[in-house]
Amino acid sequence: MTCTEPAYAKLNLTLDILGKRPDGYHDMRMVMQSVTLADEVSVELLPEPGLDITADLPFLPRGEGNIAGKAAAAFFRETGLPQRGLSVHIRKHIPVCAGMAGGSSDGAAVLRVLRRALAPEMSREDLEKIGGQVGSDVPYCIRGGTVLAEGRGEVLTDLPPLPPCHIVVCKPQFSVSTPELFAQVRVQRLRFHPRTEELRAALEQGDLEAAALRLYNVFEEVLPRRCAPVFEIKSRLLDLGAMAASMTGSGPSVFGIFRDEEPARAAAEVLGEQFPQTFFCRPAEKNV
Questions:
Q1: Res 1: pLDDT
Q2: Which residues are catalytic?
Q3: Of 47, 51, 39, 97, nearest to 75 (Cα)?
Q4: What's the farthest any 2 CA atoms get from each other in the chain?
Q5: How close are the terminal C-alpha atoms of the chain, in Å?
Q6: CA distance 238 to 233
Q7: Which pLDDT value is given to residue 119?
């Protein structure tokens, strides 16, 4: 039997870097939001051992070179369950190398399917711990919804959901190296930091406008000059009626929050003429 699981994209409503840790990672403080833009991950358990990972994008890694394969290997290793054969096919909708945790979300989808099929008694927290061994964004992607993520991203606190709204996401036609950006960050030199507690209060009050006005990503301060289109897209989203706009993750994708659907769809159409990877979506709820 094949189970198809949605793998929702992630946006950073805020992204703050607090400092570098002894283990080489950085301490982060981020408010994450999943959205309805999603990959489709089909998982089939097979009687014979083996791992087959395929995708509709031929350049994606196969087997354990793909984060979905790493997730499956971690699940069987940590649970001690007998190794099962697995066939996974990923139909991509989330842009690749976009700051939207597409690969991490695919891995999280595989973990959710394996838990339901083979270890239904496992708690979500234990599954998230397995996810943390696969990648920093995987625990959040297992959970989804609106979450405060701390540590290197694995310490999660549920937040009230982002009020109903419409979101336009636009990825310019280049990628950004996450290690390159981290190497440029000097925490003591950052001019601004997200007002995370104010955002949290706005979410608790269900105030969309106040929440939107607290969007901020410190990586925008250290983008190289070639990333100027990030700021062009932000400006155009605001001109087209977005309440606020920000880059997500290490970029280069930019998103804008709209109160009403019609201007959001119109903005997506306009931006899509120049940037083909432009998407209309909405906030997604937590994964079950």
A1: 74
A2: 10, 137
A3: 51
A4: 56
A5: 20
A6: 9
A7: 97
